[in-house]
Design goal:
The protein has 449 residues and is of the alpha/beta class. 36% of the residues lie in helices and 22% in strands. It folds into three domains: 141 residues, Alpha-D-Glucose-1,6-Bisphosphate, subunit A, domain 3 (Alpha-D-Glucose-1,6-Bisphosphate, Chain A, domain 3, 3-Layer(aba) Sandwich); 207 residues, 3-Layer(aba) Sandwich (Alpha-D-Glucose-1,6-Bisphosphate, Chain A, domain 3), CATH 3.40.120; 82 residues, Alpha-D-phosphohexomutase, C-terminal domain (TATA-Binding Protein, 2-Layer Sandwich). The protein has 14 helices and 20 strands. It binds magnesium ion. Magnesium ion (MG) binds next to loops.
Length: 449
């Protein structure tokens, strides 16, 4: 794998810092996107980062050059843009680096159905960029920029429509992490009847309140607030609002895969169809699906692969183990805000405590290790995939996952770091450790080719 000399498409768009994603590059890649999609209009939104307006200007310029009309939506959560793309049948570019540190810059691209572009579809745009084959508007045919900062209200309506019951009697603390969720989540919860207390709800690209990834270490203030104010739950979003973490009524942090599992249980009560997730997801999801008589379809790691698979139809939901869940009635992207509303609605309508719901989930232990490898890690994984691809207990679409009666393990080559990552999950720590050791032995066998 040789680097192309510019920030290429990864698992979800293009990501770097301003030194890598320069305004010059942004103009050209966006002109290439306009050429690729041949859409008349492209929606453009940004998160709360300090680089937002600079990047937005370059994106708009590139779209104009490539002959598409930019519709500037201002600061919006990622799921709002995916909803608007689908509703209007217009592709979109989201300027957001999600949960990354404040200096990061990234572009996410969606097609006219609101489905995020995979690395493979991104490659088609890179081909246009590399061969400098983007369209160039002549002086007399340059489209006009449209500004539509009220579009957020359309998304707000869909959030309220998806919530069938009032959230009254629920006391919720919402930590927006100075990201885009602050623009909408607290207001919608309030309008739905909840008692709302906010943390870090003001937009601030320096993220002074906390880092934008809602990990347990980062949401200490939220945990403390839930305990002292005796709230029913705490909600923390990532920087662009497409995923969430929860804090239960006892002040315990609820990991992303458990949040995903709770959401799947709620959705499968309401909808027909199977569940899509990545090969790296806990068996909790498989167990919940089985409880409802449904199956799990595994795809490669990366939210766009989940959205792409769901577009084929027959699925009730999809999501990632980090707490990103798709509610296909609304739109095809992960939606942290809608997830938080649906889970809170479930608490309000059943009278159950979040801690009880978490306690009732299947329990698993896991072990993670990383083994140092240079670029030969890609060849190693390919050889293993060749060997395992015919086996019924193996999934080889992304790394090598092997399922056992009582657990599973996976080996994947890191895309950016010199490691092969091995993960094992089982009912006990010892068994998870054994599964990781089994995979380590397999790696040893295929090391030399
Ligand atoms: Mg995100």
């Amino acid at each position: 794998m040789s680097a192309p000399g510019y920030p290429a498409f990864g698992t979800n768009g293009i990501r770097s810092t301003l030194d890598g994603i320069t305004p010059d590059f942004i103009v050209k890649i966006c002109a290439s996107f306009a050429t690729w999609s041949s859409a008349k209009q492209v929606l453009v939104a940004r998160d709360t980062r300090t680089t937002g307006e600079l990047v937005e200007g370059a994106v708009a310029s590139g779209l104009l050059w490539g002959g598409a009309q930019p519709v500037l939506l201002g600061v919006l959560p990622t799921p709002a843009v995916e909803y608007l793309s689908k509703k209007r049948g217009v592709p979109s570019i989201i300027i957001t680096s999600s949960h990354n540190p404040p200096e990061w810059v990234a572009l996410k691209f969606n097609d006219e159905k609101g489905v995020a572009l995979t690395k493979e579809r991104g490659r088609e745009i890179e081909n246009i960029y590399e061969s400098r084959a983007w369209k160039t508007s002549t002086w007399d045919r340059i489209p006009k920029i449209i500004r539509d900062e009220l579009a957020i209200n359309e998304y707000k309506q869909v959030l309220k429509k998806e919530c069938k019951n009032a959230l009254k009697e629920i006391k919720v603390i919402i930590d927006c992490g100075n990201g885009t969720a602050g623009k909408i989540a607290p207001y919608v919860f309030k309008e739905l009847g909840a008692k709302v207390i906010t943390l870090n709800a003001q937009e601030d690209g320096f993220f002074p309140g906390r880092n934008s990834e809602p990990t347990e270490q980062n949401v200490g203030d939220l945990i403390g607030a839930v305990k002292t104010m005796k709230a029913d739950l705490g909600i923390a979003y990532d920087g662009d609002g497409d995923r969430l973490a929860l804090v239960d009524d006892k002040g315990n942090y609820v990991l992303g895969d458990k949040v995903f599992a709770i959401a799947v249980d709620i959705i499968l009560n309401e909808m027909e169809g199977d569940v899509v997730t990545t090969v790296a997801t806990s068996n909790i999801i498989r167990d919940i699906a089985a409880k409802h008589g449904r199956k799990v379809k595994y795809v490669k790691v990366g939210a766009p692969y989940i959205a792409e698979e769901m577009e084929k139809g027959g699925y009730a939901t999809g999501g990632e183990e980090v707490g990103g869940i798709i509610w296909p009635n609304a739109h095809p992207g992960k939606d942290g805000i809608l997830s938080s509303i649906k889970i809170t609605e479930y608490l309000a309508s059943t009278g159950k405590k979040l801690s009880e719901i978490v306690d009732a989930l299947p329990k698993y232990e896991n072990v993670k290790i990383k083994i140092p490898f240079g670029n030969e890690r890609f060849g190693l994984i390919r050889r293993m995939q060749e060997e395992f691809k015919e086996r019924e207990d193996a999934i080889t679409i992304d790394g090598v996952r092997i399922d056992f009666e009582d657990g599973w393990c996976i080996a994947r080559a890191s895309g950016t770091e010199n490691y092969v990552r091995v993960f094992g999950e089982a009912k006990t720590k010892e068994r998870a450790e054994q599964l990781v050791n089994f995979m380590k032995d397999e790696i040893e066998k295929y090391k030399l080719g």
